[in-house]
Design goal:
- The chain contains twelve helices and 27 strands.
- The protein is α+β, with helices and mostly antiparallel strands.
- It has three domains: about 150 residues, Immunoglobulin-like (Sandwich); about 220 residues, Rossmann fold; about 100 residues, no CATH class.
- Strands 2, 3, 5, 6, 7, 8, 9 and 11 form an eight-stranded antiparallel beta sheet that branches. An eight-stranded mixed beta sheet has the order 12-13-17-14-20-21-26-27, sandwiched between helices.
- The chain is globular.
- The N terminus is likely disordered.
């Protein structure tokens, strides 16, 4: 009997348009004379959304659900027409010709760059922090257009004119209150590196009784985190009764804004209570031309932020607010970026601080750079087999559902800015950890378009910023200085897979001898990002209680480790 062969046809989902349906629309973007009084350098962005609200510039991101954005550089731009058409890189669709027909809302924005002449002699063009960290959508002085509704019709050769006619207004600095004080100093170290005045800022929460006890001197807690406009989580009044309740999609919680206000008010009441430890709590502002914060370490591309914070800013705060001013009375904590910063600063300045409490830290072992092993993997975007490739996830929820890929997140950043200038998460890791390239910008750890990893850059990262590797390499020197100082907390379903690096760090710390690290590593069951060690409360509450979680732990550490003759009484009123 003749054998019959059956051909199995498997349909493939095609996201782009067919050739006959491809858009022939182009966009011509200009700037009105009233908002552009001189030539500008920067990144010109075109946002295209199917939804009217919020404005299109707020609707793009690295997730698969992102609305569309395209971007290109402009230099010495005086407002003449810039054409966005096929060939201008975009995300999620890479090319405008694949934009499906239909109705859209569009908006353009210019993210301004300035020229810096670095201490190295390089000249680079980067976005200066103008009061919004590196939030390009809100950065004061950035130009944008009013959103307009358009129709994409592939049967027509349309040119759609967009004019930048609006300017983001300045952001007012917060005012001092009874408990919260704000400081700003010029850093000599950073100003020398960047070739212009560079400032560091901080929000200082002073203890109850600060004025009534002028002889008291206080321990200091450095609460690391993203660029804080003001000190968060502290409120001297009950929640606003007339506040319109919002909804937290992340936590599936109604009226989360009211919960946040209540938690902030509850902390205030604890702060002024008789039995709460009297300390200084400080949130630092160290935004730079690459990101909202510097990662608080010295870097080839960002300059000596570690030294500037530790040797310029912290002593200044201690002098102004009667800090004890000794290493045994300084502590570090934070989550996410702040978690990495807390641990890294403790490792790089072991004598200057007496303990770190690092929650959900950014990758602390680059064998688990999220889901990438930068030393063994060839490509950051794919798992590669002999006949197939599987795209590497970038974000999940507590059930493991994927909402982004590493490639998608990086391609979105590449649209917002090339040369590590997007202000995004992957770009700042690159800017902090990489050597400076010949052009004055950070060397790529992997090709931003293809994902191909550069092993030479990976080796540089390993020797300079892989915290687990550095601890293991230098434990004979660092171990005696860090005994009892390292505490790490992470949810085992961290949205960004950060728990994987914590496992690797725990494996090393648990093996330490001479001395044993004598700290703590703990995990939250099914907990997502920002879990900080609280097993009793849900993550959406505990993430609002960093100060309440760690100040008592810090007090215990002081009682165990303060040197003979240390001031343990003036601040215990």
């Amino acid at each position: 009997m003749k054998k019959i062969t059956t051909l199995l046809i498997i349909p493939i989902l095609v996201l782009s348009c067919t050739k006959s349906e491809r858009s022939k629309t182009i966009f011509s973007i200009t700037a009105h004379d009233s908002v552009l009084d001189k030539s500008e350098d920067g990144r010109l962005l075109l946002f295209i959304s199917k939804e009217a609200e919020p404005e299109p510039r707020y609707q793009s991101g690295g997730k698969y659900s992102s609305q569309q954005v395209f971007g290109l550089d402009v230099e010495q731009w005086t407002g003449e027409a810039q054409i966005f058409g096929s060939g201008v890189f975009g995300y999620p669709l890479a090319d405008m010709k694949d934009l499906p027909p239909g109705e859209y809302f569009v908006q353009a924005l210019l993210h301004k760059y300035e020229t810096f002449t670095l201490l190295t002699g390089h000249s680079v063009k980067l976005p200066l922090n103008r009061g919004a960290g590196q939030n390009l959508r809100r950065a004061p002085g950035n130009l944008y257009s009013k959103p307009v509704k358009i129709t994409i019709d592939p049967s027509k050769n349309n040119t759609i004119d967009i004019e930048l006619s609006q300017v983001n207004p300045p952001i007012e600095a917060p005012e001092d209150t009874e408990y919260i004080k704000h400081i700003r100093i010029q850093s000599d170290l950073l100003s020398e590196f960047w070739g212009r005045p560079v400032y560091l800022g901080a929000h200082v929460l002073i203890p109850e009784g600060f004025d009534e006890y002028p002889e008291a001197r206080y321990p200091i807690c450095i609460f690391h985190g993203h660029y804080p406009h003001d000190l968060g989580g502290f409120r001297t009044e009950p929640p606003d009764e007339d506040m319109e309740a919002d909804y937290s999609e992340r936590f599936n919680i109604q009226a989360y804004n009211r919960i946040q206000q209540q938690e902030a008010y509850d902390f205030y009441r604890k702060w002024i209570s008789d039995d709460f430890p009297r300390m200084l709590i400080v949130e630092i502002q160290h935004s730079n031309p690459y990101y909202d914060d510097s990662y608080a370490v010295n870097s080839a591309n960002l300059g000596p932020y570690g030294d500037a914070i530790t040797y310029e800013l912290i002593p200044y705060i201690e002098e102004q607010f009667r800090g004890i001013g000794e290493g045994w009375a300084r502590f570090l904590y934070g989550g996410s970026t702040g978690g990495w910063e807390a641990l890294a600063v403790q490792v790089f300045y072991p004598d200057e601080y007496n303990g770190c409490f690092a929650a959900c830290p950014d990758p602390i072992d680059f064998r688990a750079y999220e889901l990438i092993n930068i030393y063994e993997d060839k490509n950051a975007y794919y798992y590669e087999g002999p006949f197939a490739k599987l795209i590497r996830p970038g974000r999940r929820n507590w059930l493991g559902h994927i909402s982004s890929s590493v490639m998608g997140e990086n391609h979105h950043e590449l649209v917002l800015g090339n040369k590590s200038r997007s202000g995004g998460q992957w770009d700042i890791w690159e800017a902090v950890f990489s050597p400076m390239g010949e052009d004055g910008y950070p060397e790529r750890i992997f090709d931003k378009l293809t994902g191909e990893i550069n092993p030479e850059v990976a080796e540089y990262w390993k020797n300079n910023y892989d915290l687990r590797y550095i601890l293991e390499r230098d434990w004979a020197r660092l171990g005696p200085k860090l005994e009892g100082k390292i505490h790490i907390y992470c949810g085992d379903m961290d949205n960004y897979y950060l728990n994987n690096a914590v496992y690797l760090m725990e494996e090393f710390l648990g093996s330490t001898t001479d001395p044993y690290y004598r700290g703590e590593v703990d995990y939250g069951d099914r907990a997502e990002h920002c879990w900080n060690g609280d097993h009793n409360l849900p993550n959406y509450i505990s993430r609002l209680r960093y100060n309440e979680m760690y100040v008592p732990k810090i007090l215990k550490r002081i009682e165990e480790s303060a040197p003979p003759g240390a001031d343990l009484t003036s601040w215990r009123y």
